[in-house]
Amino acid sequence: MLTVVVSRRVKFVCTVAGLAISGVYCHWYSPPDLRRTYRIGFEHSPPRQLVMADGRPTGSVVEIVTEAARRANVRLEWIRVWKGPDQALNSGAVDLWPVLNGLPGRRGLHITDPFFEINYWLTSLNVNGGLTAADMSGRTVGVTAWLVGQIAQEGLPNIKVVMFSNTPELISAVCKGEVAAAVIGDGIAQSFEFGKPDDCSLRMAAIQNARLWSGIAASRADRDIPKVADLLRDEIGVMVRDGSFSTICLKWFGRPTNEALMVDNLTQALAETRWRTSALGVLTVGLALLVWMAWRLRLSTRTAQRATAAKSEFLSRVLRREKWSWRWWSSICGTLSPTYCMRWSFALMKRMWNW
After folding, report:
1. Which residues pair with 140 in a beta bridge?
2. C-alpha 90, offset from chain centre
3. Are 47 and 253 in contact (CB under 8 A)?
4. Does 310 score more than 80 pLDDT?
5. pLDDT at 58 over 90
């Protein structure tokens, strides 16, 4: 009876696990609906996003995402947004955003695997080794965007942030001593605007937690939108490897880049690590289940062996008490008729079990 109970439990666990795996697959791995049109937002955010005179979007990121959508057969409708990507995505005004940094405050959004990486550095005059993050308390720091200002305030406490309209103006202010330092990114878009004066020697120092990863952002309004974002990201990965991505960057920035290739390689390595960790977890659970089943089987076997031994001991005691032996019993049955022997055997067994 115990063995039957264990088998039922195992069947129940396997059934529940199979249903759970099927549900997860249907929810996350079924293809998105490509018959609908997905709304993707944009704003004037040079140099990657630009707005033409007629209001249409242009720029390197716009061209990259448009080409990825063409390859993936995804229909996009570009919608200009005036109040930033976070409000547009959270309010449902748009479904997608072409590129967005992964910040802790954006965990409510789905952001794909990155295809851009940017590190922000503290840039100051190269005098006496330059300034470090520990030297910045009470000093003035220049930035060109509110996000960069937020990074500066988190990594450089007790500073005064001054906003500049563009990177060349910011660098000029550092060289003239108008600000103590600047926070500048090292991505290709930032390098495109960066221009160091010949008579100005600069030095860069690290800022804590100043590395950002950027991917396609998607609203979680329905399950198809994140899937479409991931589909576009997969196509961008193909473009990175066939040279299309670098060709677009060369067109817009005047120089090729392997930034996206390095990020894509790192992303694939991290994905393989996650899959291996997940496989190891599944194997560990399976091994634990096998150990549990072996332990229950061993326990059941011992219980059955003890029951058999107890039954044998009981029969032996009954036979000794009735002064019967198995040999004598066999000899008597051999001399009697089969019908009488059967009746006599049944009577004896009834008496034995009622002992």
Report:
1. 160
2. 21
3. yes
4. no
5. yes
Average pLDDT score over residue span 96-104: 91
Topology of 117-212 in CATH?
Answer: D-Maltodextrin-Binding Protein; domain 2 (3.40.190)
Which parts of the chain are beta strand (E)?
37-42, 50-51, 57-58, 75-80, 96-101, 110-111, 116-125, 140-143, 160-163, 181-185, 202-218
Q: Which two tokens stand for residue 324?
A: 């019967």
The set of residues, in sequence order, having a beta carbon less than 8 Å from that of 345 and lying 6+ positions away, is: 333
Q: Quick one: tokens of 157?
A: 């406490």
Whether the CB-CB separation of 171 and 194 falls below 8 Å is answered with yes
The stretch 237-257 carries a mean pLDDT of 85
Q: Which two tokens stand for residue 328?
A: 């004598």
| Confidence band for 5, pLDDT divided at 50, 70 and 90 | very low
Tokens for 236?
A: 């961008």
Domain boundaries, the chain: 22-115+214-257, 117-212, 258-313, 322-353
132: nearest Cα among 56, 73, 208? 208
What is the residue whose two structure tokens read 């008579």? 199
**With 60 as the cut, is the pLDDT of residue 99 above it?**
yes
CA distance 50 to 52: 7
CATH class of 22-115+214-257: alpha beta
Q: Which DSSP string corresponds to 129-198?
A: T---GGG-TT-EEEESSHHHHHHHHHHS-S-EEEE-SSHHHHHHHHHHTSSSEEEEE-SHHHHHH----T
- Counting DSSP H helices and E strands in the chain, the numbers are 11, 11
**Whole-angstrom distance, CA of residue 178 vs CA of residue 172:** 9
